[in-house]
C-alpha cells in the first residue's frame, strides 16, 4: 500500500508517496489475486452466506414450548419459514443477475471480493516478513 506524507519542502502542498510497491510484492499480490479468482467456488460461498442470513433473519423458538408436540409444531413452522426466506433470497439474486450486466453478476462479485481479500492478505504477509527500509525520517 502506498502511504502519502507531506513533502519536506515548506512551500509545497503536494503529497508524495513515502513507499512504493516493489516488483516482488506486486508479483505476489497479482498471483494471489489470480489464484483466488480461479480457485474460489462462488456457489459454496453464496450458499454459506445465504445460510447465515437465513439463520439471522428467521426468528428463533418461542417460549412456552413445554410439550413435545408444541416443540415439533414450532420446529416445522421454523423450517418452513427458513425455506421460504432462502427461496426469497435466491429469487432476489436471480433477479439481480437478470437486471445487471454480466460483469456485475453475483458470481463475479464473489470472485472479485475473494481475490481482493487474497491480494490484501498477501501484501500484509509480505510487509510482515520483509519490513520496508525507511528512506529518511518523516
Q: In words, what does this structure look like?
A:
It is a single chain. The protein has 138 residues and is mainly alpha-helical. Helix 2 packs across helix 3 (68-99). Mean pLDDT is 78; it is low at 1-18. Helix content is 64%, strand content 4%. A two-stranded antiparallel ribbon has the order 1-2. The chain has helices at 23-39, 42-57, 68-99, 106-129, and strands at residues 4-6, 15-17. The longest helix has 32 residues, at 68-99.
Which strand-content bin applies to the residues?
Answer: under 5%
* Helix percentage range: 55-70%
General form: elongated
What would you call the structural class?
mainly alpha
What is the H-and-E element order? EEHHHH
Number of strands: 2
**Main β sheet profile:** 2 strands, antiparallel
Sequence stretches where pLDDT stays below 50 over 5 or more residues? 1-18
Per DSSP, the total helix count is: 4
Strand order of the largest sheet: 1-2
Amino acid at each position: 500500500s502506498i502511504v502519502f506524507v507531506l513533502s519536506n519542502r515548506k512551500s509545497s502542498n503536494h503529497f508524495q508517496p513515502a513507499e512504493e510497491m516493489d516488483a516482488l510484492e506486486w508479483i505476489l499480490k497479482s498471483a494471489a489475486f489470480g489464484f483466488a479468482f480461479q480457485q474460489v467456488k462462488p456457489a459454496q460461498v453464496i450458499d454459506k452466506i445465504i445460510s447465515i442470513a437465513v439463520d439471522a433473519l428467521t426468528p428463533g423458538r418461542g417460549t412456552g414450548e413445554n410439550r413435545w408436540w408444541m416443540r415439533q409444531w414450532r420446529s416445522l413452522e421454523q423450517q418452513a419459514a427458513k425455506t421460504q426466506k432462502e427461496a426469497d433470497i435466491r429469487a432476489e439474486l436471480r433477479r439481480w443477475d437478470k437486471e445487471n450486466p454480466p460483469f456485475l453478476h453475483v458470481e463475479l462479485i464473489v470472485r472479485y471480493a475473494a481475490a481482493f481479500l487474497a491480494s490484501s492478505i498477501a501484501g500484509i504477509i509480505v510487509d510482515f516478513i520483509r519490513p520496508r527500509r525507511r528512506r529518511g525520517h518523516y
